[in-house]
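Section 4.2 – Deliverable D4.2 (structural model, holo form)

The reporting period included a commitment to supply a predicted holo structure for the target in complex with NAP. Inputs used:
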Amino acid sequence: MSKKLSGVWITGGSSGIGKAAAKEFARTGSQVFVSARRVRELEKLNEELEKEKLSAVVFPCNVASSVNVDQTVKKIIALNTVDCLINNAGITSFKAAEDNSVQEINDIINTNLLGSIYTIRYILPHFKKQGKGTIINILSSAAKKIFTNSSVYTASKLGLLGYSNVLREEVRKYNIRIINILPGATETPMWPSDVRKSSSDRMMTGEEVARLLVWVYLQEGNMVPEEITIKPVEGDL
Ligand SMILES: NC(=O)c1ccc[n+]([C@@H]2O[C@H](COP(=O)([O-])OP(=O)(O)OC[C@H]3O[C@@H](n4cnc5c(N)ncnc54)[C@H](OP(=O)(O)O)[C@@H]3O)[C@@H](O)[C@H]2O)c1
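Output (structure tokens):
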């Protein structure tokens, strides 16, 4: 099967980078599976895709629930082969360390770190069985550079960076590629609206990040970009 016709699963596809990626992958002819918690937003994605005569298969899935992730993988695998998982679902808090409630701490770690570990845990047996697969993790430039008011977020992204670096060595022999993308500021609903308003011209767009994800996925030879940092041309905010 041509790579272009395989399935791609994008988590957190109801908004921002994930939604832009869902559209960009759909344009390649891939079958796109998109999950997130807000079903209405996923329906809106399909309404927008319909205007281009495209569509995505959407699933409600809270990645912080391992049971939910397991069920979603079963549903996706029943429909088609999948050879790419994009771990994109993520949240942050923009708060000093001690200002985060325990709930906020749990939510960030459970979504960004455990959520991605769960999706990998359940998709990996399928990638091994089919002898190929690509896992793209959307990390953050915060995994390499220190930004205040992002301690829990940074812990979640650095945790996933460490996990993925070990995983990559374990799965090379199965023809499974582990790719970490570390974006800088991107104009999405993750940012408070005043920052989006004042600094949007200093940020990348979700569409720009999405185009990189498609390019990375479509590389077919004996080359894998294992880690890519991308930033706005003028640098960090
Ligand atoms: N924007 C930036 O500047 C930037 C920079 C570096 C990295 N990133 C990373 O890029 C990724 C996408 O963020 P974004 O900027 O596009 O923000 P966004 O527009 O807020 O999108 C976040 C997505 O994650 C989903 N999500 C959140 N919690 C979830 C959960 N428990 N289960 C399933 N889905 C969940 C949301 O959908 P639902 O609410 O519908 O579930 C939404 O689709 C994140 O991992 C973020 O850390 C962003």
